Sequence to fold (398 residues):
Amino acid sequence: MFEHLDILPPDPILGLNQTFQQDTNPDKINLSVGVYQNAQGVTPIFKAVKKAEQQLLAQQQTKSYAPQAGDPAFIERITSLLLGSELVTSLGERVATVMTPGGCGALRMGAELLTRSNKGATVWVSDPTWANHYPLLQSAGLTLKPYSYYSPETHGVDFRAMLESLNSIPNGDIVLLHGCCHNPTGADITPTQWDAVIDVLEERDLTPFIDVAYQGFGDGLEQDAYGVRAAVKRLPQVLIASSCSKNFGLYRERIGAVMVITESVKQTQAAKSHILSAARCNYSMSPYHGGGIVGHLLSDEALTKEWKEELESVRSRMNSLRLGLAKGLNEAQSKIDFGFVAQSKGMFCYLGISREDVLSLRSEFGIYLLESTRINVAGLSEENLPVIVERVSSVLTR
Ligand SMILES: Cc1ncc(COP(=O)(O)O)c(C=O)c1O
Fold:
């Protein structure tokens, strides 16, 4: 039955992690992981999340199936967290939210909806984009093509090229946008640039599919939702994939949400029914636990306040590490101006060094970053920062 199957190569990011685990260098440092880590290198459970979980478990009377669309409290609160309560009220039943297994589940269910409504549709993704966008969306039957986004020369968004590229996309296609904290580059567009992008989407009848995996990791919960809210306010239809993995630290619970906004209640109901049908064909319904925790937490004022404060401290810790790295590298060498590292948003940024230097850092010094030069800022710590600065600058200046 399975004798003709070849063993597939490991996922590039997970595979590098494995290589790191096997590396015997006692001074090794892993900057390639995709999770937040505290100063001790631990991915902590938010205190408010732990409390919400304990309360939820104490109250829970049954493990029977939850509604197929997910925990009602979760659905209501997560939609408001992202869109804001005013916008949610004005949309009424033009917005529908379905709980999903993580942001990946949301991306996949969004992709299934797009395939069902427009077989073989083309989704345009930023160049570069999160590597998993390709398999997740393509295997649902969508065609993916890149639009210009990042300039390795300026280490930032080439906004002129981006607009030009978006302006050449055929009417009616789909554009995948990162809501905030672009993965892998950390280079985001500004609110004014979002407005200009939405102008193009409006003119060319393009549908945005917005991936929000890091709300609260960039400039703050409200600020990070600017692009999504502006798109929803102005465009007739928007598809959103949101993840609670990072901002609630619920990675392994697999909790996210797919949201669909259309111009009529009827269309939204139809779209929702197709999402539910796609879920039924795949895994029937999302795991409940993570959504139960988030729904409970966001329904409790004190827990919500505590969680927001914890999230804020995560954000400011990453910002101070990012500033420390930029300053340290600029003081230690003059080959590259690393000011752009200080400007980057969220958990990731490109270091912009050569592939050869990435490989030397790995083999000679046990410093692991992706070949694209993506680093996880949260992999830095007050302790390892001077070591990283010294090793990166020594590789750069020889
Ligand atoms: C850009 C982006 N989208 C979506 C996700 C989905 O995350 P998850 O399925 O773990 O919620 C991630 C996770 O790394 C991501 O970086």
